[in-house]
Design brief:
By secondary structure, the chain is an alpha+beta fold. The protein is built from 4 helices and 7 strands, in the order H-E-E-E-E-E-E-E-H-H-H. The chain has a 5-stranded antiparallel sheet, sandwiched between helices. 31% of the residues are buried. The structure holds zinc ion.
Length: 195
């Protein structure tokens, strides 16, 4: 498999409602290892498969952001958020929208279940930052961006930055350094069928 990279908005992978993972194998484990590496290099605390143009329902987090703190790493495969409680608004950013931040209201406490890299199902009760990161990443596998959840007044403030990112992406498509949306979607479909 070719090397993964974090794709920016408005790459079609970021609007893809991803497919359940049906097979956990060495190739998938290699993808996950690469996702952690990319996440740390970009100074993120979470990364979803959609963000590296893989149409699978999986994401990784390490809320410490510290590569040395391996015990903080969690892989979520086929995640489901089964309970949500409370609500709190806080600034969020996203590796697919570099240097763009906005306030998002999320549940303070959640219960999430998922499978790990050994195919074992687990359930976690999370709160505060952990809960926020998981809700943000879960949105990614559903094709939802945090900016979809920013209130319109606040969104207006960051809209110029978002439009700028879109313009850069479209220009690169015109130059041919990024494939067309149609080609990118074809690739996503092929990847979806392959797993
Ligand atoms: Zn994100």
């Amino acid at each position: 498999m070719s090397r993964l990279e974090i794709v920016p908005h408005p790459h079609p992978a970021l609007r893809w409602k991803s497919k359940e993972v049906s097979r956990i194998d060495d190739e998938l484990r290699a993808m996950v290892a690469e996702m952690f590496e990319l996440m740390y290099s970009a100074r993120g605390i979470g990364l979803a498969a959609n963000q590296v143009a893989l149409p699978y329902r999986l994401f990784v987090i390490n809320p410490s952001g510290d590569k040395a703190e391996k015990d903080q790493e969690i892989v979520f495969i086929n995640p489901q958020i089964t309970r949500k409680n409370g609500s709190e608004t806080d600034e969020e950013g996203c590796l697919s929208l570099p240097e763009i931040y906005g306030p998002v209201t999320r549940a303070t406490k959640i219960v999430v279940d998922a499978f790990d890299l050994n195919g074992q199902q687990f359930e976690l009760e999370l709160e505060d930052l952990h809960a926020r990161v998981v809700q943000h990443e879960y949105d990614h596998v559903e094709g939802v961006m945090f900016t979809d959840r920013v209130a319109s007044e606040e969104l207006q403030k960051i809209q110029p930055l978002i439009s700028d990112l879109e313009l850069q992406f479209r220009n690169r498509q015109k130059e041919g350094t990024i494939e067309s949306d149609e080609q990118l979607r074809k690739k996503l479909l092929a990847l979806e069928k392959a797993r």
